[in-house]
Structures are given as C-alpha cells and as structure tokens.
Design a protein that fits this description.
By secondary structure, the protein is an alpha/beta fold. Helix content is 50%, strand content 10%. Helix 11 packs across helix 13 (298-309) and helix 11 packs across helix 14.
C-alpha cells in the first residue's frame, strides 16, 4: 500500500491538513481497488495549526514517518520564509535521494525550495507569493499562475483548499484519469452537499469499504466488470459465483480479500455509482434510472442512494448541476481575463482540470 506522509510544520493552515485526507480518502472509499496509507508527521517545534482557528494534533509520527514514505506532501506554514530546521531539510533530501515523490503546495514550496531540490526546475506557489519565490530562489522557474507543476519527482501547486488540485494530480498519476475525475466529483459534492440531519446516522450504519485490492493471476477483475455491465439484471450470489468459476463461499472469501467488500456490497456500491453518473449526465427520471441500475423501484433507489451518499437522488442532481454551473462560470471569467494578454487565442483555463 503506497504511504503518503504529510509533513506538518508549525502554523500550518488547518484546511491544508484536511485536503489530502479528503482527496485520498475519497479515492479509496469510492474505488475499492485504490489503497493509500496517510500519515501526518509533525516536525520538531510543532505547536499547533495557524489562525483563524488554531488547533493541536496528536500523531505517533515525527520525521521518522518520512523514512519509508512513497510520497511526501509539504503544506504551507507560518514560518515559510525562515530556513527549515536541519532535521526537516535532511529528511526531505533523504526522501528525494531514495526516490520518493515530493509534493508542495502553497507556501510549502518555499520550504522545499530552501533545500535546493528545486534548483533548475519549474515550481508553483500561491500567486501572491510567486514573485517572492522567484526573487529568493532565482534558479527556480516559477509558474506565476500557481497551476499544478509536474517536475517529476517534485510536484507543486498554489494550495487553494488544501492543495486539492495537487492531490488530484497525484491520484491521476497513480490511478488514472477516470479515478481522479470521480474523486474530484465526490470531493466537490461533499463540499457543496446540503445539510441533512439523517446523513450522520446513515453513515454510521453503512458498511465500511476497506480500501484495498490485491490483483493476481486469478483476479476478480473480469467478474467485477461483468457485474458492472449487467447492473440492470437481478444478479444473485450464485450468478456471480458461476461467472467467477467459484463456489459461493469461495467467492465471498475472494471478494473480501481483493476488494474488502462482500460481492453484494460491491454490487450495491456499483449500482449507486452508476445512478450518480446517470443523474449527473442526463435528464432521465428517477424511475428510469432505478430500472437501469437494478434498483427496480424509485423507493429502493432513494433508500440506498441516501444510505451511501447522504442525500436523495433529486437533491444530488440539483446540487451537482449547481456546482458545474458555478465552476463553468468561474472558468469563463478566467478565460475572459486571460484573453487580452494572449496572442493567437487564450488557453482554456479549465483544460487541466478536465484532463484529469
């Protein structure tokens, strides 16, 4: 399982700590074959997060948590203009030396730059700090727009909403664009979802999906793809076992080992996700979507949809379309602002997000 270590320095904005957990946790929760171990590793001298609502965190990991991490993430922090502590700089250099991927967002790029690891490479930070980063570190080619910069193995971005764009970029590299796109949709639906007094209770009752998948020469991949292509059929455990060439008992054991779910839990989750896609992309009535996804009746669809997403199908469709309209409007405004400075046509500012 890939290990992601978030290096927590004193005065880090709280939202920059929650962003990675939201992205990588959502990717694993909605894709049973995706697995990440996320560690929060405090640096020496850490006292708490920054304002406006500072809080302390308790974690078993210090700089030693970086020693075997596949990816190290470096959020911004209050003392980003100061030279990093020797232990911090040494830990980052050691991670880079053994081939770890390092991502910095917001003012965290300043700390990574101070190690010398970004010399001769492109990097990004928040727009308001781009000129200062370029002045302090003239050997770095600073992206003035703060877009995600891939200078493998170093990745950097502006850090809005806790580096969500950077985390989604890393998920794209790890899992492919479809997983990243679905993760982005789920993350932003969480941010825009209306309050529901029943959501917390439903979440407590919902079966937890263990985010793991171990594909081997006898992987269940062909069977899960067959299930997803026949969601409108009344699939039974026996049907699924016959397709996989297993007994029902063996099927349950293999599903638990590869996905962390029982076959019927996997089937239910696939039906909910299919319903989400249909609600997002078309105008079919709920009755038709219930039939196409194997739920049968609108009442059955509403029950399971509420149980897994915390909201009803019609509210989900409305919220998703409001979110898309807001993002499209923002992209359009950005394009209008960029157009006068462009020669031969402005680049589409939403292209990077859509490519993920």
């Amino acid at each position: 399982m890939p290990v992601i270590a978030v290096l927590v320095l004193d005065g880090v904005p709280g939202h920059e700590l929650t962003g990675p957990g939201m992205c990588f946790g959502t990717a694993a929760r909605h894709h049973p074959h995706v697995a990440y171990e996320l560690r929060y590793c405090t640096a020496p001298g850490f006292r708490g997060t920054g304002s406006p609502a500072p809080f302390a965190i308790d974690t078993p990991w210090g700089l030693d948590g970086l020693a075997d991490a596949d990816t190290v993430l470096l959020p911004g922090h209050a003392g980003f203009r100061d030279e990093p502590e020797p232990g911090v700089a040494d830990a980052l250099r050691a991670a880079a030396h053994r081939g770890a991927r390092i991502g910095a967002f917001g003012t965290g790029t300043f700390t990574l730059a101070a190690t010398g690891l970004l010399d001769g490479r492109r990097a990004a930070t928040g727009r308001q700090y781009a000129a200062e980063l370029a002045r302090r570190h003239p050997l770095i080619d600073v992206d003035p727009e703060g877009a995600v910069v891939d200078a493998d193995p170093f990745h950097s971005a502006a850090g809005v909403l806790g580096g969500l764009d950077l985390c989604l970029h890393l998920i794209t590299l790890d899992q492919g664009a479809p997983v990243a796109i679905e993760t982005e949709r789920q993350v932003f639906m969480q941010l825009h979802a209306p309050a529901d007094p029943h959501a917390a209770a439903d979440a407590e009752e919902a079966p937890a999906a263990a985010p793991r998948h171990r594909a081997g020469p006898h992987s269940l991949g062909p069977t899960t793809r067959w299930m997803e292509a026949h969601l409108d059929h009344p699939l039974t455990l026996s049907d699924i076992a016959d397709h996989a060439g297993l007994t029902v008992r063996g099927l349950n054991r293999r599903f638990r080992a590869e996905t962390g779910l029982s076959p019927l839990q996997y089937l239910l989750r696939a039906r909910v996700q299919a319903a989400q896609r249909l609600l997002e992309r078309g105008d079919e009535p709920v009755e038709r979507i219930a039939a196409r996804t194997g739920f049968g009746t609108p009442a059955n669809l509403r029950h399971h949809f509420q149980h897994h997403t915390g909201t009803g199908p019609r509210i989900y469709r409305t919220a998703f379309r409001s979110m898309v309209a807001a993002l499209t409007w923002a992209d359009g405004k950005n394009a209008e602002a960029a157009e006068p400075a462009a020669s031969g046509g402005a680049d589409d500012p939403g292209a990077e997000r859509r490519r993920r």
